[in-house]
Amino acid sequence: MAGDLGDGVITWRRVGEADFALLREWLRRPHVARWWNHDTSPEAVRRGFGPAARGEEPSEDLLALLDGRPVGLVQRCRLADYPDYLADLSAIVAVPDGAFTVDYLIGDPALTGRGLGPRLLADVVRRPWDAHRDAAAILVPVPAANRASWRALEKAGLRRVGEGELEPDNPDVAPAHYVYRIDRPA
Predict the structure, then answer these.
(1) Best CA proximity match to 65, nearest among 111, 30, 132, 33
(2) Average pLDDT, the chain
(3) Verdict on whether the full-model pTM lies above 0.70
């Protein structure tokens, strides 16, 4: 597949236990593992994604589908539901009440660098406004070294509002992070 992926239809659904094998496969891929650094044993994936899949955790793990084919993962959560993470982020930028954050990946390296990331991000950041009426903004910290990720955020309409050190998912990545933000439309 060559070229831009701008014409396919993006849909979303909650991650379920039947998706764990696919998530394990994606998390093992070097382009994902560099930033996520997640244990890919079946037990670890079940521990990491099971609570959200069963509705036991307030975060939303969403599978991104392009023309019905799974292509990526987005984790979305209200920052107030994770006080330690909120405190870390608040040390760098002002965090409004009701703010959300997202984390994301594209599973297949052949789909990266083709415009899919910004499309997925632009689509997923529009969604909290309807489902979560009190969502004031979405803040996304991203390692400064992950240029592709922060460029995708910029193309999706988020703006850089701060920078500072946060503990990265992967200990091999420097702690320098940029923080991006998009506010609820007026």
Answers:
(1) 111
(2) 92
(3) yes
